[in-house]
Amino acid sequence: MAGPKKMIHAGFLWSDSDCAGFNAWQKKQTVKVSPVKKYISNAEEYHRYVSRPESKRSFSISSLTGYFLRPAEAKQPECSHKLHPDAPVEAFCPVCQVDHCIAFLDAITQAWENLGGPFREDYEPRSTPHGYTNLKLAWRAARLELWNLVANLEKQAIIENRLDSYASPAEHSDEPDDPLPTIYDAHAALARYRMTYKYPVVDVPHQTEQEFHTPHPSPKQKKEVHFDKDLKNGSTRKNESFDRKHPRYIRGQHAVKPGSEFENTACTDDTEFLLSQTKMFFTEDLGFHDYAEKPEHWPEFEGIAGCHPRWEEILQGRKTFTTWRSHRKYIRWAQNLKASGTDGVAIVMYGGKIVDFVVLRAPKEKEQNVVKRRASWVSLSDSQS
Fold this sequence. Notes:
By secondary structure, the protein is α+β, with helices and mostly antiparallel strands. The chain is 36% helix and 9% strand.
């Protein structure tokens, strides 16, 4: 059974022993209310569990009485902090509510970071995709709970400002005034939120003014096309005349002369050309597909296929390989050959004939995520320190 979308399973934040303690603690608090077992409903429940007395860590009926059995109208907050005269009396003052939400959000953030966090790339291992997804959704739900609280506090701050503006100023006297008590009102809660709320930031290398240089646009040059003066007008040919393997092919005046050191590009398609430029070796192991990504089982390469003395034999074997293989499998093989990172081709022989071409590709070392290495969770208080 899937858990609620706006709750988080306790097993994602704590170890098995701590999770078992939370389950036992939660079960014994359900006198009249039946919350979802093993799930943390909100930041207040998280705070009540982590802040329970040390002497009563195993079980405390009073630690959750105010949460599940609290009266409809409380007379004063449990934290005993002084409130604004116009502030509604709740279980905790606005500052404590913000602290609870941020502590709950930080706990989810730490567990999420252990599995990769928001900067995890696709190539990183995902041993626990279920837990990663649930922590990501729980982080969003906890952040939404904090933002909803902040939205209500902003409205309450406007009401408190109006009440303060109507209040009469205190009369001045020669005697020193007593220090005013600290009021945990909406303004103090909003200030706490702005200074302690953490968000992900990527550190960008600092660039001094001397290093900074604004490149100037290069002047546009006028493009011109020049033709050879000896070019004769109307020297066009049919498409088949460009196929050097066609019976009616006629060598043009600008074609490479026979025996030239220039590369012969008279290939029927890109696959044949790529095969001619790929390192290869022969093998008689019909099951060499199992070693396509295991370089420790590869013999030494015998050179480039196009320069090998048996290139004509390889070319003929490739045509036979194309004929008897299905179109779907051949397209997949051609895509593997054209893909970047191909190390070579193993030509499989059987009975003196070429029966298979195995594309070789050694597993590459995964590059370190530069963005994740430079990323961190910071707040305004961290940046000012």
